[in-house]
Design goal:
With about 90 residues, the protein is of the alpha+beta class. It contains 3 helices and 4 strands; from the N terminus they run αββααββ. A 4-stranded antiparallel sheet has the order 1-2-4-3, with helices on one face.
Amino acid sequence: DEMNAVITVNAFAWLVGPCEIVPREDDGVMAAVKLRKCRYLEQCGCTASCANFCKRPTEGFFREAFGVDAHLEPNHEDGSCVMTFGREAPTPDP
């Protein structure tokens, strides 16, 4: 999980914007990445677009392509987002 965070910060900053490794909230392991100001969220400004075109597809991509659990938690107030590795995303409401 920690290695996934390191790779994400180094490989995806060009896509999502400046980001940093932060501790997971539940156990303090350095396996979460905070996007200071998500470019997608900043540009779309829409909660539904964020969830349907970024959050869920990204969680699915990491699970299906790499076999890695990742949970994205966007903050619609400040435009940041935390991607936590090693934590399964909750099932979305129907």
